[in-house]
Amino acid sequence: MGIPVDGLFYIFLAVIGVVSFVGGLLVLKKSRQISIGFLATLGVSILLFIFLFRWFQSAATDIYMGTIPWLFNQAFAIILYILFLVITLFVFQRIHKESVS
Asked: Cα(59)–Cα(55) distance, rounded to whole angstroms?
């Protein structure tokens, strides 16, 4: 009895968030520019997000997941992704303000 595919989808989504946030934070600290750090986070997260969607599509096909649950999972992931980007931008701005002053 393993973890369901949609459960793995959200676990991988969280891992993508952590990996891209840490990568962007390292770039922010190195470059000392919010835009460069955010673009690094955005680039890494979009790339990994696309790979995650492709994996989820094939995994959902293998277990014969219906169209509506698949669509709801994708839509909810996109909403979470946009929320992640907004929170990341605000956190980066706060970190940049504290490091400058």
From this structure: 6
Spatial CB neighbours of 31, under 8 Å, sequence gap ≥ 6: 37
Q: Return d(Cα 43, Cα 7) in angstroms, integer.
A: 24
Residue percentage of the chain with pLDDT more than 90 = 59
Which tokens is 68 given?
């509506």
Task: State how many domains the chain has.
Answer: 1
Residue range 18-67, pLDDT digits in tens: 999 999 999 999 998 999 999 999 999 999 999 998 998 888 877 777 77
| Residue numbers of the domain that contains 55 | 5-100
Whether the pLDDT of residue 1 is over 70: the answer is no
Tokens representing residue 46 in the block: 């979009």
Nearest Cα to Cα of residue 93 among 18, 15, 85: 85
**Which residues have C-beta within 8 Å of that of residue 101, sequence separation ≥ 6?**
none
